[in-house]
Write a structure and sequence with these properties.
The protein is α/β, with parallel strands linked by helices and 278 residues long. 32% of the residues lie in helices and 28% in strands. It has helices at residues 39-52, 101-108, 134-139, 156-166, 172-185, 201-213, 231-246, 258-263, and strands at residues 2-5, 8-13, 16-19, 26-27, 33-34, 61-72, 75-86, 90-94, 118-121, 124-125, 141-144, 219-223, 250-255, 267-272, 275-277. The strands form 4 sheets. It has a 6-stranded mixed β-sheet with strand order 11-12-13-8-14-15. A 4-stranded antiparallel β-sheet has the order 7-6-9-10, covered by helices on one side.
């Protein structure tokens, strides 16, 4: 980089500035010229130093909530909620039935409005988000419900195909490859032709997880995903969600199944008396 100022040639290299000196320049004992930098030279040096200073990385959170109140209608459910979840983290959200776990998840996928505080999810500021961008946010999320919510008149493949259609997939080959990929991930690669009523409860929940994974989301939000399942099947579902987190997708599970939490330990966030804490 070369800069010129009033005929004085300044050459910048790393943190050293060399200048053509005039006749009145002072000399040190070893004949090294000494000159106070002019304002322009100082500006150049500052630019050089700034270019070589690495930027401080931002916190690597996919979910960041600070001092947010959560309402159901006009009723305050949770007060001054703060929580942060990183990429690839598995987090349990625990609390009694009716404590507000589902309300907190609804806040994160924009089914409950942000009225105050700061809520950022997958790069979206939910306090400022426009209605036209809510669908874009939800493409970054995979949501797993307790009651499956599968389309009963369509087979497994068609259930997943429906999600790709409503989220804008155009390439049929890429779509089919992705559907086969996620079915393999959840151990249902041979079940694509099955109707929901032909599957066990655990298999139906695996279809729900596959559906949540179709768009390669940054975050999985699971609301009591094993509430209707037996203990052995519940363990398998939690183990699958743990493996998904290990592969890089953040997973937040609302649950009150402390037995499985002890078997597959991870970070726990608690809800009690309208407060969220660890």
């Amino acid at each position: 980089m070369q800069l010129f100022d009033m005929g004085r040639r300044i050459i910048c290299k790393k943190n050293v500035i060399f200048a053509n000196m005039d006749k009145n320049t002072d000399m040190t004992e070893n004949n090294t010229p000494v000159e106070e930098p002019t304002p322009k030279e100082q500006e150049v040096e500052n630019i050089v130093n700034k270019e070589e200073t690495p930027a401080t990385p931002a916190a690597d959170y996919v979910i960041s909530v600070n001092e947010a109140d959560i309402y159901q209608g006009k009723n305050l459910i949770l007060n001054k909620v703060s929580l942060h979840i990183s990429n690839g983290e598995l987090v349990y959200l625990v609390g009694k039935t009716g404590s507000g776990k589902s309300n907190l998840l609804k806040l994160l996928y924009c089914d409950v409005p942000v009225v105050n505080g700061e809520v950022k999810v997958a790069g979206f500021d939910l306090y400022k988000i426009k209605s036209r961008n809510i669908q874009k946010l939800r493409r970054e999320l995979g949501i797993v419900f307790q009651d499956f919510q599968l389309l009963q008149d369509r087979n497994v493949y068609e259930n997943l195909k429906f999600i790709t259609r409503v989220t804008g997939w155009k390439d049929k080959t890429a779509r089919d490859e992705r559907i086969n990929e996620v079915l393999t991930m959840v151990g249902l690669e041979t079940k694509g032709f099955k109707m929901p009523h032909q599957l066990s409860g655990g298999e139906q929940q695996r279809v729900c997880i596959a559906r949540a994974l179709v768009n390669n989301p940054k975050i999985i939000l699971a609301d009591e995903p094993t509430g209707n399942l037996d203990p052995e099947t519940s363990y398998d579902i939690f183990a699958l969600l743990r493996d998904i987190a290990h592969a890089g997708t953040s997973v937040l599970i609302a649950t009150h199944d402390y037995l499985i939490i002890n078997q597959i330990p991870s970070r726990v966030i608690k809800i009690e008396n309208g407060k969220v804490f660890e």
